[in-house]
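Late entry, flavin-adenine dinucleotide complex.
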Amino acid sequence: MFPIVHARQLSDSVFELGVQAPAIAAKAKAGQFLMLRIAEGGERIPLTFSDWSAKEGWIRFIFMRVGKTTHHLSHLCVGDSLADVVGPLGVPTHVEGIGRAVVVGGGVGAAVAYPVARAMCDAGAEVTVIVGARNADLLILEDEFRALPLKELIITTDDGSAGRKDLVTAPLKELCEARAVDHAMAIGPVIMMKFCAATTREFGVPTVVSLNPIMVDGTGMCGACRCTVGGETKFGCVDGPDFDGHQVDFEELMNRQRVYNDLEREADADYSRKCSCHQ
Ligand SMILES: Cc1cc2nc3c(=O)[nH]c(=O)nc-3n(C[C@H](O)[C@H](O)[C@H](O)COP(=O)(O)OP(=O)(O)OC[C@H]3O[C@@H](n4cnc5c(N)ncnc54)[C@H](O)[C@@H]3O)c2cc1C
Ligand code: FES
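Prediction complete; structure with ligand written out below:
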């Protein structure tokens, strides 16, 4: 069992949990993820590390409540436990020797962008971060980003309720036009990563995206997470989750993500019904 030692609500639908997991905390690196099960027989879901302490033996992850399992997770508190946590999984994000970097985090993707930006700063890169959200209430980790030694933090919201009223691609394009960036990383909804990659392609700026295909085992055994990159089949869990954004088949990824939509909606509705019965 993995005891929950930290719980915080970051916005209406975004939550952070921390669990005691010394063996995982000792090895975690930016861009890697874990697979968890809340209880025996439950669904396994992948979530990226948002923070960890090898010294104190804890790991943290940030998640958006989107369906049954994340709904259930959002009800857990300090003192509860998770049945399984497996990790660190995936290849760590490449952060060494990248010069002037821009890291784009959209929505809950900011949770993954934060440790990546921190690791790039630690590795000596000059880092600009663009964080985008639909509105001010959905912005997360602003204080944490401000505490990093960034070149600049640019905030955008779709409705202008915080920062610039723009999509993340607008400041990204300006940085590329100003030739102020050698390397881009985009993390967030697939559609956002697709348009970030399209923006940087024009300027020949190498761009990495962190993909989030459906995963089942997270260890390269089941093939559920396969995606096409540069015409080749890759497994998101062991070959990624980071890939060259200019080579990813985003349409295929979006189609594969929708495969279980009906079942997911049913499972969440069933869970919500049971929750309200027990209130
Ligand atoms: C490598 C990786 C890292 C991720 N990191 C984060 C993170 O840090 N924070 C965060 O909020 N989300 C993250 N996700 C997405 C997260 O795993 C899904 O939101 C979660 O599994 C949804 O489960 P659910 O039962 O609540 O919702 P469901 O109703 O089951 O699904 C809602 C949507 O989530 C996606 N999803 C569902 N099951 C899975 C699965 N087994 N694997 C991957 N995606 C799934 C699908 O797009 C689906 O349409 C990550 C996904 C991957 C692959
Ligand atoms: S999740 Fe099974 S192979 Fe990647």
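The domain at 91-209 is CATH 3.40.50.80 (Rossmann fold). Will revisit in the morning.
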